[in-house]
Amino acid sequence: MPSANILNVGTELTSGITADTNAAWLARALGEVGYVVGEIAVVPDDARAVGGEIARLASSGGVLIVTGGLGPTPDDVTRDGLADAMGVPLERRDELIETIRTFFDSRGRAMPASNELQAMLPIGAEAIANPRGTAPGIVARVGGADVFVLPGVPDEMKAMFQTAVVPRLASAGAGVVRWRSLRCFGAGESDMGERLGELMARGRNPLVGITADEAVMTVRIRATAATTTEADFLLGASADAVRARLGPWVFGEGLDTLADAVARLLTQTGLSISVAESCTGGLLATRLTDVPGSSVYFRQGFVTYSNESKESVLGVPAKLIAEHGAVSGSVAEAMAVRCREIAATDIALATTGIAGPSGGSAAKPIGLVYVALADAGGATVRETRLGAHLLRDQVRDRSVKVALDWLRRTLMKRSSPE
Amino acid sequence: MPSANILNVGTELTSGITADTNAAWLARALGEVGYVVGEIAVVPDDARAVGGEIARLASSGGVLIVTGGLGPTPDDVTRDGLADAMGVPLERRDELIETIRTFFDSRGRAMPASNELQAMLPIGAEAIANPRGTAPGIVARVGGADVFVLPGVPDEMKAMFQTAVVPRLASAGAGVVRWRSLRCFGAGESDMGERLGELMARGRNPLVGITADEAVMTVRIRATAATTTEADFLLGASADAVRARLGPWVFGEGLDTLADAVARLLTQTGLSISVAESCTGGLLATRLTDVPGSSVYFRQGFVTYSNESKESVLGVPAKLIAEHGAVSGSVAEAMAVRCREIAATDIALATTGIAGPSGGSAAKPIGLVYVALADAGGATVRETRLGAHLLRDQVRDRSVKVALDWLRRTLMKRSSPE
């Protein structure tokens, strides 16, 4: 099974100013072409650290993907680190300067002198074209490994990985490793683990694991086999077994979100939707419209943040708000019912709750959220008490997930035969 | 200067199913108590790999923070890896089983048998209490390093780091390293680098670097000094110099978002705001209401996704949409003007554009976005052509940033004396 390591370079990463999103993308992309990632490492913009890590990670052979530190400013030292690891000096490549100059020309700008730094490459290394930016990538052989150096800017890195790295990897694979992920909502890790039982045994092929991420659980299944067909057969059997045990907790596969699952069901059923939001402040509409093609079912959203807007825009009676409070099941219900009427949609969802960090009380603590769903049959309200330890962002995120999951389960009943 | 390494364990990380957010948080938190992170490493749920990396990273001394792999399922093997690196076996700690059982009891649930795994610790290691979950943390001495093992679940990890790890680190520091970050929008990395010039020289103290993340540029400044006072003095001088050169591109510090900057200015000026969104689908309202206390200035939002809703809810004339198209400056302007009237706010922002992946044409390509700002003086429209290489999410994100930055600059003119 071919293996790969990843090295991301950047003091912004080791100091925590930026979260590393390149590593996860690269790991998935490598997996899709049959590589298992053995290690991901991150080091600061320090030529010695970069050189040392390239040498260490390359010594295990296979493939090493390095990202970051190819920019035009003095803190970009990956070129130097690579040259150290190769034991050669950098040289200036005139043809690369012309390419960079052309890139600036096409945007009607003069090339800043600093960008000449990006045309310095270790002797013996090869350049990779960067169609979206000024930093060329680099291919080199270090120790027993093929080393590919790409820019840290995600869209440049992704484009170059697909167009220049993948074609050079494709022939390398002996066996294959294939992944499948089932996405779940509504249960915790222990409960899911108990249901899955011996399917999660260590050393089993396929191997089954569970990962929690902001209340979404991912059951990941990894099969190793001689051929893609065989691996996919093994994955299919395990995925069926997992689905049978987890039932309606499973809402999708791969990188599916709850909004993706809802989008499929809305498209299938031909139903339209609108939303009225208070505590989620537009996030429910955002998630629904994140999905390409959402204009087919999503009509409109109201972010009625103030009490006045709940009254003037949705027509929620002032008396109802005065009696029960804006955060109440009665107000959520009225919001959903009125939203559905105004938007003339089949279904409407409404949220009202206390996201924090202030505004909580003993009777109505932070994390208390009411979600209402209105359809032709009337309206239903759910009270959810999210953990008091959740942050504002998390309360808003969970509220949206609870609403989308309820919508999903409602639509599933409609779309399946009685 | 005390140094720290970070090791995150999880096949979900090395396979790219989940992005590693713990590393960035830990790096920042370690920096705040004077530690420089030398390396971040990520390995799969494999006891041998975990044990090998703990031994390697511990060999450089200092502090090693390990997260993940402490769950109750068989793929959680960090305990085993740590025991290997220490050269001792695991033992069952009855007192930890009682603690875990109490945690389940307090939630009215029976402890699943699998959770007993979490009470296995290497001989000689010490447990750290986990107030928010079932997995105890672990403290141990490996090689020359103090090793702290925490759960991978972010909120459990963060709470335990602050309550149990920081107190043990506090006395370790000799000198200090302090960071400051200036957040910028509106320019690219090369342009900013040219303006900053010799401030970015390698080896300078403070050290200045630039990082790009989804069109927001962060200028990070690192000072090393004998005392906090001295380091902060150096940081202040450098930050002033950076601000002087970058001018209005700088919108904030630390982890500030454009919405945070806008929130401060809206609060200062006492102005209220409403939004009407088409292509951004609720994301502009979401960003504005992400900020705690946003109910002071944010009144309401309309997500008028369909043409019908632009007409019926906002009263945009059907004729205008027919003549210019829903994606046009005229429609954006009408949306902003009507939104401001309906919501009775001082300012209204509107967006309409083509987010993709479909719906583009030669005349109106993907990435074409109109943002309108209406205030007492009337309405102004800006046309922005975002790069054709951007994904749907990125078009929506950039559109919101363009709108927020425009609002920020408008508010700055109002809040500063003539």
Verbal overview:
Two copies of one chain form a homodimer. With 418 residues, chain A is of the alpha/beta class. Chain A has 14 helices and 17 strands. In chain A, the strands form four sheets. A six-stranded mixed sheet of chain A has the order 2-1-3-8-7-6, with helices on both faces. A five-stranded mixed sheet of chain A has the order 14-13-15-16-17, with helices on both faces. The first copy, chain A, has a four-stranded antiparallel sheet with strand order 10-11-9-12. The first copy, chain A, is globular, with a radius of gyration of 26 Å.
What's the SSE blueprint?
The structure is a homodimer of 418-residue chains.
Chain A: E1 3-9, H1 11-14, H2 22-32, E2 36-43, H3 47-58, E3 62-67, H4 78-86, E4 90-92, H5 94-106, E5 120-122, E6 126-128, E7 137-142, E8 145-150, H6 154-169, E9 176-185, H7 189-196, E10 207-213, E11 216-225, H8 228-246, E12 250-253, H9 258-269, E13 273-277, H10 283-290, E14 298-304, H11 307-312, H12 318-324, H13 329-343, E15 347-353, E16 368-375, E17 378-385, H14 392-415
Parallel strand pairs in A: 1-2, 1-3, 3-8, 13-14, 13-15
Antiparallel strand pairs in A: 4-5, 6-7, 7-8, 9-11, 9-12, 10-11, 15-16, 16-17
Helix pairs in contact in A: 2-6, 3-4, 9-14
